[in-house]
Design brief:
Strand order of the largest sheet: 2-1-3-4-5
Distance between the termini: 55 Å
Largest sheet: 5 strands, antiparallel
Helix content: 40-55%
Number of domains: 2
Structural class: alpha+beta
Length: 443
């Protein structure tokens, strides 16, 4: 049955909210939409302080009802449709965390999805004195649980627009700091002050804020490729596609984390890169539309290729009947037998992915693999040479297959024209092209 927002608007006028889960509401619209989203809560009961008929009360209300009232309140004083739509979008994200957020949450606290019906039944509506700022302590049996401590910590970071590295500031010793004492207690309840759990809490907040607000993480490298800190050397948009990866396990390295390596699935890594990219170029820019198109090409190709896993007979057809996806899959399987199985993450498959990424990122022609394998070659990038060796065993036929595969893959993903050089033409030369001279530090 659809929700009647008018009824909730009338209710919001009657119940004049003053605070949500201990966080005071603003009296005007001088707050960014991204921060107002901090009052929206995921699945839980919410402790509200409000005025009704000139009396001050506190009560426990379901997050859905509270969120409806907050949305109505926001729209009543915000005349910009785009901001209202943005808050609706944040609400949808907060109320529906994705599977990766849920997985991280369950790894962090056991009660991430627990309902606490027994505890919540013991929380009743109370009349308060006007100067009572400790109203939330009346509901401590519920609010001192790890689940509610984590929810309030999420709200705190969004409301105050804080970077997640502040989590380490809040575990430092403090004296006579009322606010920090509360935050410290939340962290203690969630992590029991175990250092590994505190680091995992930081990871959770990183992923949560990226998912909700599209806030980029401090990524340093994706599969060994360094992300640019500045743009003094202009990078072409199609070269940025080198940071996107097809189905695999991806290594992310971070600038500001001692335990700075994380292994994540490719879709999570691609999400992280896209947030980083949008933070630079904007949500609706032509650059973002183009890089989104490249990502879509990769994902479309992977979906199509995975279909060949269960029907290898399709790949026995002639090239002109297979289409470009089928030809990519066929060449991939000739190079690496398990190429079409997205559930297998082998060393050889990773070498091919690393090679694809490096060639795209640095705008290198596919024929560079001939230059790296010619007699007397003196390659600059030894990682690249190692990948080629592992994929082809330096067999001439396989090197030619790899070149053909790369030509098709680059054309499909970023529309790059084929490199017309052949292996004999390059192997008979004695020098590298400019594109071969890539510094060792970029990988």
């Amino acid at each position: 049955m659809p929700i009647n927002l008018c009824n909730y608007y009338i209710l919001s006028l009657k119940m004049n909210f003053i605070a949500i889960n201990g966080f005071e509401l603003p009296n005007d619209n001088k707050i960014k939409t991204t921060q107002f989203a901090g009052y929206i809560t995921r699945d839980s009961d919410v402790c509200v302080k409000y005025i009704d008929n000139y009396n001050l009360y506190s009560d426990m209300i379901s997050n859905q009802k509270v969120n409806n009232i907050l949305i109505s309140r926001f729209k009543s004083f915000n005349k910009f449709d785009e901001e209202s739509q943005l808050l609706d979008y944040y609400r949808l994200k907060i109320e529906n965390p994705n599977s990766y957020i849920k997985q991280l949450g369950k790894e962090l606290i056991e009660d991430y999805n627990y309902e606490y019906f027994t505890f919540r039944r013991g929380c009743e509506k109370k009349m308060l004195k006007m100067n009572n700022d400790d109203y939330i302590n009346s509901y401590s049996i519920y609010f001192n649980t790890p689940k509610m401590s984590l929810i309030r910590l999420e709200q705190f970071f969004i409301l105050n627009d804080l970077p997640t590295c502040y989590i380490f500031e809040f575990v430092k010793p403090t004296k006579n700091d009322y606010l920090r004492h509360y935050i410290f207690d939340w962290i203690k309840t969630i992590t029991k002050l175990d250092i590994n759990k505190i680091k995992r809490l930081r990871v959770y907040l990183d992923e949560y804020l990226q998912y909700i607000l599209d806030r980029p993480k401090n990524i340093y490298k994706i599969n060994k490729l360094v992300l640019p800190i500045d743009f003094s050397n202009e990078i072409k948009i199609d070269e940025f596609a080198g940071y996107l990866t097809r189905t695999s396990i991806v290594v992310l390295e971070f600038i500001d984390n001692d335990n700075n390596l994380r292994l994540v699935k490719s879709d999570e890594a691609n999400n992280s890169f896209m947030s980083w990219f949008r933070a630079i170029y904007g949500e609706n820019s032509n650059e973002t539309k183009k890089i989104t198109e490249y990502r879509s090409n990769i994902e479309k190709l992977m979906k199509k290729i995975n279909e060949y896993k269960s029907n290898n007979e399709k790949l026995s057809s002639k090239k002109n009947k297979l289409g470009i996806e089928g030809n990519i899959a066929k060449l991939g399987m000739e190079l690496i037998p398990d190429y079409c199985d997205n559930n297998i993450h082998s060393e050889h498959k990773q070498c091919l992915i690393d090679l694809e990424q490096l060639i795209i990122r640095h705008g290198m022609p596919s024929g560079i693999i001939f230059e790296y394998t010619m007699k007397g070659a003196n390659p600059i990038n030894y990682d690249m040479l190692d990948w080629i060796k592992r994929i082809t065993k330096l067999e001439k036929k396989k090197i030619e297959l790899l070149k053909e595969y790369l030509d098709l893959y680059l054309y499909y993903v970023i529309y790059r024209k084929k490199d017309d050089r052949n292996i004999n033409e390059v192997w008979n030369k004695k020098s590298f092209s400019k594109s071969a001279k890539i510094k060792q530090t970029v990988v």
